[in-house]
Amino acid sequence: MKIRGGMLLARALQEKGVSQVFTLSGGFCNPALEGFMECGIPVINAPHEQVAGHLADGHTRITRQPAVCLVGPEGFANAIPAMMEAWGERSPVIFITGSSTLKRQGSGGFKEIDDVAIAAPLTKYSVSITDGERISECVDRAWKVATGGYLGAVHLSVPVDIMFSSFEEDAMRDERPYDRSAKPPPRAWPCPEDLSTVLDLIKQANRPILIGGHGVWWSHAEKKLEDVGQLLGIPVFNVPYHQKLLGEECESYMGLADIHQYAPSKFALHESDAVIMVGTRLDNQMNFGNAPFFPVSTQVICVNGSHEEIEFNRSADHVLLSDPGAFLDALKTLSPFERQWFDINRQKRGEWVEQTIADIPQLEDGKVHPLQLALDVQEAMNDDDWLVIDGGNTHFWSEIAVNIAGWKGRKLGNILHPGTFSMLGVGVPFATAAKLTHPDSQVVVISGDGAFLSGGSSIEAAFQEALPIVVVIDNNGGLDCISQQQERLFANRRHFATDFRDIPFHTMFEGLGGHGELVETRDQVIPAIQRALASGKTACVNVKTVGHISPIVLATTSKRDKASIE
């Protein structure tokens, strides 16, 4: 029996356990869509290919299992921003392009584009399937590359003539591996001598801190990180731009390792004698491992589960190739550290929370400060609700609010937000993915107005799939984060090309069949969000806020000649 290449593709992905596909349906992809339909794999049709990519990325980050983004040739160009966002967060999304005909490649075929070359720098593996009999082999290879070592997105280009042509249904299944189902990827186990050296260094420390990153999440080791912090009395920090690793109730969790958004982390970094970074990178957020972020006197130890990460962290004083979970298990064997160092970091966090709340200005006429909005959003939520953050200053203020609310006892189900590229417009797709994977949880997005304009069309997917989410818009009338940078950078102290008109976002939702409310004073915020949640509809609470410069923008634009946050 012979079947189309698209059916072979669908069956190969089904064999891997793919549970969700996102697409913008197109003619080039029809054989694959038919295959997904017959295999019983759910497919969500998004209003734009970038939205489909962000949905797949969000689904993958939440489930920690690859989802598929399927697009056509011209749609591939639209999906590139989502590919970049997934790449920055090590999200192993499977991007598939139904591409121009292989038979006439290089001759100006219909919608011909060199998608393989374009995707190469944004993925771990980008290849064109030039022989339909090798579809299963290519899927197997792509899956193992995506989920092994340094995780990341992959890209398969399937020419339309291969997609529609027929092949034996067991093509090349007489070759190894005979079993192509998904299996746990190989993990790096630490060399005993290297592990002993690192543990000895840590034992000699008096003021160690732990910084957890992406590798901890993808290794399913967040509970072990929490246990180490609690058992040994080590303050634990999280890298910026990543979903939370530890619950707010975790006593050892302090906040982001970000000296601007969480000032006590500066004290911890500068007073520490050993910084143990697990599953993270010495990139621009960590000042590339340099002073003054890390004092010269501090030992910087990087533990990573792949050679790619180890090579990235070349500036560390000590590196260890090890699966994060295996290393954290080894850390548990150490004796607890003196409690004084742990307690002073807890004290600093508590003082920071109270001072930050006290510093929120009381605005005239009940107008809304962006930090107060972020706090009120979480006040209106319940434990285990999901919070999604999107925007520039909205993102920064919300990160601060998450730490404050957590200290006060708010326990969120999880948090999703833009990654290292600060891609605007991911909020609604990520929230939709959260509701899809956690239908019994409430999902709230707090989004800047500019961020919503970047990805607002994605709200149709939430309506179409009956996945009610609540979008709270921090509406300050423009790209406030950029305006503030310009006002501190430009010689005339003005901003330029960053303002929006007064957009009635709430009526957009009403027109689509949802719930919408306009909020103009702070006392209206929490009741409006509660009504939106109770409506059971996809809803918008459009909050008029007064823009205020965030600590990170303030700190990184302190000189006119400093043009960027780096």
Account of the 3D structure:
- With 566 residues, the protein is α/β, with parallel strands linked by helices.
- The protein has three domains: 2-168, Rossmann fold; 192-349, Rossmann fold (3-Layer(aba) Sandwich); 360-556, 3-Layer(aba) Sandwich (Rossmann fold).
- It contains 23 helices and 20 strands.
- The strands form four sheets. The protein has a six-stranded parallel beta sheet. The chain has a six-stranded parallel beta sheet with strand order 11-10-9-12-13-14, with helices on both faces.
- 53% of the residues are buried.
Secondary-structure map with pairings?
Elements: E1 2-4, H1 5-16, E2 21-23, H2 30-39, E3 43-45, H3 49-63, E4 68-71, H4 73-88, E5 94-99, H5 115-119, E6 125-128, H6 135-147, E7 154-159, H7 160-164, E8 166-168, H8 192-203, E9 208-212, H9 214-218, H10 222-232, E10 236-238, E11 253-256, H11 264-271, E12 274-278, E13 299-304, H12 307-312, E14 318-321, H13 324-331, H14 339-358, H15 370-380, E15 386-390, H16 393-407, E16 414-416, H17 427-437, E17 443-448, H18 449-455, H19 459-464, E18 470-475, H20 480-489, H21 505-511, E19 515-519, H22 525-535, E20 539-544, H23 551-556
Parallel strand pairs: 2-3, 2-4, 4-5, 5-7, 6-7, 9-10, 9-12, 10-11, 12-13, 13-14, 15-16, 15-17, 17-18, 18-20, 19-20
Antiparallel strand pairs: 1-8
Helix pairs in contact: 1-2, 1-6, 3-4, 3-17, 10-13, 15-16, 15-22
What's this model, at a glance?
The chain has 566 residues and is of the alpha/beta class. The protein is globular.
